[in-house]
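Slide 14.
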Amino acid sequence: MYTDLSTARTAPRILPLPLLLAATLAGCGGGDGGGSTPPEPPRPATITISPASATLTYINHATNFTATVRDQYGDAMTAQVTWWSSDEAVFTVDASGRATATGNGNASVQAATGSLSATATVNVEQRAAAIRVVSGDGQEALRGTKLPDPVVVRLEDRGGFGVAGIEIGFAPGDESGSVSAATVTSDADGQGSTEWTLGPKFGAQELAISAGGIRNQANARATSDTPLPDLAVESFVLSRTDLTNLETFSATATIANQGDAASPDSFAVAITVDGEAVATRMAARLDPEGKTTFAFDSVGPLEAGTRWVEVVIDAAGTIDEWERENNRKRETVPVAHQELVSVGHSSQISGREGDVLLFRIDIDEFSREALNVEVGAGLGDPDLFVNYGWRPDHQYKYRCQSGNQPGDSELCQISPARPGSYHVAVHAYTSFGPLNLRVTVGGIAVETFDIELVFLQNGTIEQDNAIRAAAEKWESVVQQGLDNIDMSVNPVAAGRCGEGSPAINDVVDDVRMFVAIDSIDGPGRVLGRAAPCVWRQSLWVFNNDSTIVSGGAIAGFMEFDEDDLLRLSSQGTLTATVTHEMGHVLGFGTLWDVVDLIEDPSVGGNANADVHFTGPLTRAAFEEIGGGRYRGKVVPVESGGELGQSDSHWRESVFENELMTPFLSAGREPLSLVTIESLADMGYNVDPTAAEFYRLPSVPTVAPDSATMIDLSNDILDLPITIVDQKGRIVRVIPPRSERRR
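Slide 15: predicted structure.
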């Protein structure tokens, strides 16, 4: 028995009308009998319990009951309440009216004050919430034999207490044997068990366990009385999982022997498409716990549609092994239709809103003229995209993006027309057609690439001319102009593009470089510093991705230490040094992280990281200059974790005297194809024939004399970079490099 003083608050009492009149008359002192009788004080008249009933579904499940006491006038009042449980084997109740389940059954809860009492019903019905495997899981035995121990399970409610009297089912999986009892009823503690005899297959076997809608599984491993191999596909990776009917792909599979015996001396590993083998390789003997990796190159092309590509070990099933389910892995691959067209092609195309039509143009010979891809004229609004070298996985990642104006006439130009493949996507912004798709080389003028030099502080005539010569060199590398940007929309304030730089508030064509020749820190140490300060954003941003897909510099700043330029001139490295710094303004090494072209950076992280540049055109160029023998990650970038040197130059130990390493030697510093293609990967249209002859050194050369070596390792200017769209609107501001690497 529990008692409690109810905390119910008594409301103000309003007297019935007869009593109210009597009280009023008494207050006036009238009548023959003297003073009137005062009203009766409140006293308990009724008691009720809320709720009227409750159902509890697991042991220790609790609920609160509330008792309300009212006086003879119907008002709630404070009174002492006592609580009882009619059967504490079903539930208990505390002094506040909180009932807690202790066992299955029905009982009542009672609340009393004085001679008044009320009751409510409590029903405890345990419900199973989980099946727990108590013992017998994870056993091992010879296939076809009974496991040493039975599989014991327990049905539990939400409180973790056993649930009795519930039917439990045991069902072995395919080739997973049999059980002594397919169904049992849980005992008083909620437990049930069965004996499991394994099936004929080797390796993993499964036993499904169920009770109502609740499921679990026990597992066992079937072994052999003689050792056997177990060949399994651990991983299967495709070079890309979105293909066209014109493309091949590569596949890499890792095969492991998880058994206790060696495999045969050789066995077949096949790649299948829709169940048909398209390539087969023979694997050598694998000892237990051994692994091997297979690379299947140039698989396909595949027919358009949804294809499933699978790697299969021992498709003929000739190897006796533990299990065969792990002998294969599958990838489902959508294959889009892509049409191969050639220069001179002209055809009518149509598309429904949202369609993306894909084409590919293959060019065999170099031309200094531009490749022109035109769409128009007709009805609707198509957007045109062209990308050289590879097909991006979305049209908004293509380099040339023509679609900034409503209408049906679009033009993409890439100059010069280089040998290789050009991928074309025509996106139906609205339904269009029929429209004419036309491919030509030459015949349409192309804007040239212009570098505008603004000398904030001049040097000598020779020094100024060296800077102009460097600009002409980069203008010969970048063959095609970028979109003019009107910076009057959102001007860049004075001083934001280097110390002493004026505001940028007019039209820029194509890139403006501010130049200052002044004292920095005296002879030696910092010779020069450079960086872009304004950069173009892609026309579209893919899925609000913060990565800048393509663009190009709009403005940048270069400063040179006047105390060092005379020495550079005497050593014959003045022009090379200026050309190097101008490359940083164009984005080399200064925006690689922003445009997502560098992996494993060392600054602000692991100083020993194998930093590498990932642009596909640059990787191909690295191979062409002799990089096939290099065994690290490509293309290697200077590491070491030093801001201003690492993550922003080619690796000195690999490239040695190439122009864009952090150290120049007094001699020939070639501008290589690798550097030129790195600009192409950043969005510029470049002329690969402008590259100077360069091959990777086959063996390290003797380190240059420190007296003649030019140290450019601290030459990245730490500027914020303003990103603008084609209309000059500021998209965002990239923090300085020192802040990006924290």
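Speaker note: The radius of gyration is 41 Å.
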